């Protein structure tokens, strides 16, 4: 008997237990792409029936799950993390997390709401990796500090991201990275399944249940198609007009 693959198991579980997908499939017999706006409006219906909480009681994602996604993206990008502190530029404070032989911290970006005047985040002393949006660290950096740019597909559709950068969609999390040795946008296959649907690429998050994301279409997904890395053989995303 054929063993169901992670993507198939995720879809079947969503159809069994998540109201949003049950409704969609009952009405159309398909699971059409899920956009960010729809996910925001129907977030309560993306929770499994056995794991739904009232919004005021929802504790959010455990920080260690977020750290695990970021760690894997950095690994794909070619950045060793053991023995260096990793800083993520964010709009919200989070307690440091000790995991994988590394301390994971945050730097508040210039748009964060604070009691003091707005300003740019100050890079830490090295050795450290600092993950942030392009341009946040313009200027000089202390010795031993390596900056890692993160990008979304919408930006990647306009300009090819640099090797060593990581793929991040704010509503979906860290999804992969551009490998330093081949320059291809690799998908984190342990957590993400990418497939073409309705003229674009959609993503199914294999380990996320609250909320459950099946066939989520990130902004810019229409410009990409799933292919195989010519060097490593794993799944990558390429812009539709890019030659093989």
**Main pleated-sheet profile:** 10 strands, mixed
Approximate helicity band: 10-25%
- Rounded mean pLDDT is 86
The number of distinct β-strands equals: 12
Q: State Rg.
A: 19 Å
Structural class: alpha/beta
| Overall form | globular
Instruction: Enumerate how many helices there are, as a single number.
Output: 5
What does the model show?
The protein has 244 residues and is α/β, with parallel strands linked by helices. The chain is 20% helix and 26% strand. It has five helices and twelve strands. The strands form two sheets. It has a ten-stranded mixed beta sheet. A two-stranded antiparallel ribbon has the order 9-10. A hairpin with a 3-residue loop joins strand 6 and strand 7. Helix 1 packs across helix 2. The protein is globular. The model has no long low-confidence stretch (mean pLDDT 86).
Question: In terms of topology, how is this protein built?
Answer:
Elements: H1 6-17, H2 19-28, H3 36-41, H4 63-77, E1 85-90, E2 97-99, E3 102-108, E4 128-132, E5 145-151, H5 153-158, E6 166-169, E7 173-178, E8 185-187, E9 192-197, E10 200-205, E11 224-228, E12 235-239
Parallel strand pairs: 1-3, 1-4, 4-5, 5-6
Antiparallel strand pairs: 2-3, 6-7, 7-8, 8-12, 9-10, 11-12
Helix pairs in contact: 1-2
